[in-house]
Amino acid sequence: MQNEQILAIPVTVDKDHIVTIGERLYGESIELVRELVNNTYDADATRVDITVDGKKIVVEDNGNGMSLEELKQYFNIGSSHKRRQKKSPKFEREMIGQFGIGKFASLAACKRFEVWTKKGNFCGAVTFDKNDWKKSKRNWYLPLRLFTPSAGRVDGTRITLTGLTKKFKIEDIKSRLRETVPLSVHNFSVYLNEKKITPYYVAGRSIPFMEGTKYGAVHGEIVIVTRGPFPDKPSGIECKVKHVMVKREFFGLESISGIARKIYGVVNADFLPVTSDRTGFIIDCPEYRAFQEVMKNVVVRVKEEIKVLSDERQNRKVNRRLKEAMRRVEDALIHNPELCPSSLTPVGDEEGEQSGVLKKKHQIGETEGDEEEAGVESESIEEREGVDKKEVGKGADKKKPRKKKRPTIKPLTTTALVKELKAKRFGVTCVIDHFGEDGPECFTQGTVVHINRDHPVYREAYKNRSSYVMHLARLLTQEISLLARVSDPHIAYTYQSRLMRDAFRRPFKI
Description:
This protein has 13 helices and 19 strands. The protein is α+β, with helices and mostly antiparallel strands.
């Protein structure tokens, strides 16, 4: 049997790899400012001042500061300290940082960064110079300078980046910080060149939501912008973990024509695992799948709200066109009294001329005040039918009024448009609502004509005013002709043709 020998092989890391991490950690060098600000949030700072002047970037806070041991821990690459410490010591904020490597993002845009900090009686500064670090192959130490704290100086940390290799625009920094820093949290303010950065505000139809998973809550708000001007920020739903945006998504809403630029919002899911550069999620995990299931339900609600908003916007135009179509159909019925359904009749004035208003046959219960208000001098039932009033009155009180059977009406949506003929309560009612793309073009229940706004012919006719008015009038006259209880469909079609002819004797006004 051969003897085994166990040797020890040291694990080493090339010093240049530290610089490489910093240079390649983030796709955009502007991310380093976000990382530095979020570190101040973890340090319980209430105010952060950022100064950018083209030669250097300074990020200073009034947070907890660092002791000597904490400063050593700060430069411990990949430390699990933040993963173990879930909340900040003073305000118990959810810790944003996880990996302890964000500080090296600074190396992507500068040659040198200095960390100055004060906590209690300790005050010191550590300098990381990229060139000096590369020259000394064996030395893994950074120079630390100690200071005597100034009287009255508050605790905090200041990071200064010099030897900038990238250009930073103030507006770009401001825009990025508004998206990726918890600006809306109480007791946390960020100033850029002495100007406070405020979070975005988007006005529109708000859809708040909160749903639970076994991993934690998913909550937020989606806003649909109903009218301009649009916000000066990219559209989309910001997916945030611990108040910091990781990425922007639409969750399939971008497939709705013309809606993508109107969708804004925020969704918070603190349990989601993120990549080391905080620009994406680890999607191959049960937490992310649970998050996606929740967002599917939210998207269904948003689509319903988009449909409602579209209807509300369209209804203003539909209302005008439907009024015009009904006026034309009403005029046609007045000129063709014999084509009126059994429940309607045109009423003439005292001279026997037609007044242009439709009244229900055997109308009961209308007061004189109502007649005057309507501007119509209608005859009584008995006078119209040639019956003596006294004879009618003899047994009238003995008869009990019959209860009218109401037709069963399908439930309407909240945006259904309902219009009646000119004589209120006594005529054909038109309802324009959603009945599905595969539903009928129109149908009648009792004296209620339902028009399907999902039908392809309706959607095509809606694009043009004249064709839309003619479409509505065609459907109304079609159903009114059938209401006349004509047994022969050919006769009903002839009636409809006459009504359409008289309805459009007058040309359209431009």
